[in-house]
Request: fold
Amino acid sequence: MPAVTADTVHLPRLGTPGLGDVDRPVRSITTAPSGSEGEGFPVRRAFAGVRLADLDPFIHMDQMGAVDYGPGEPKGTPWHPHRGFETVTYMIDGIFQHQDSHGGGGLITDGATQWMTAGAGILHIETPPEDLVVRGGLFHGIQLWVNLPARDKFTPPAYQNLEAGQVVLAASPDGGALLRIIAGEVGGQRGPGSTHTPISVVHLTVAPGATVHVPWNPEFNALAYILDGRGAVGPAAAPIHSGQLALLGAGDLVTVAADARPDSATGALEVLLLGGRPIREHVETYGPFVMNTRAELAQAVEDFQAGRLGVIPDGALMPHRPA
Reply:
């Protein structure tokens, strides 16, 4: 169950759709394949099979877990570099510990979000803390990569720690849906995330049998990824279930409905809504680097090998290995 929840009765409410509002149609629905990341923690590759041009300004997204680890099983990522984009780690349940070569760091836990601007270059690590490795426990989150336009590729690295209590909460008009607004403006409510590229990130919980019409910036694209549960999306009520991504067309709002008979762990439909203003620039990627040209990728690799993206600090956080 998501760590951040609330009684929708007392929350600000979305407005009802206007007469001329256009409900965004479903262009495609794809199913995320399973894989592993870092030291071997399970993920679903949410954007697999979708063109970068349709994802723009997003590049990559993994659903991490949900998995209930036994003692000694939790895993993370070792120190690694990034350049040219922003990483967003949203911990729905569980704990990750972060440190980077630019001085950022801390615990990301139970509804918190870590927003790291890699920009010109950075090294970082994300790993479960020692006590979690020893005892095991629930781990469920999202890692999202947000592209930076060419003019911002070499911006200085930066770090935002958005605690769970900073997330802005809102409800549908009938109270059947809870919105956690992490970034961007939705229905007059603005999330705490500060972004170089204009985007919206919303975690939506829809009660069984409920429907919500989420107002969405018409200049943004729109993606709906199902974290858990079963329901429908769009004006034609296209069926969708956990591990699937809906790419939506143009319009003013996104409609999501939960099945009346839930099959999810929470008893509700859990959805991550994403959208942003497309950058519309050529993208070249190589592992942890997102640039505009192959020459820039080659330079990123050279700079990393020469230590120009940063160095691992003395006494740095390291993955805990159980005895």
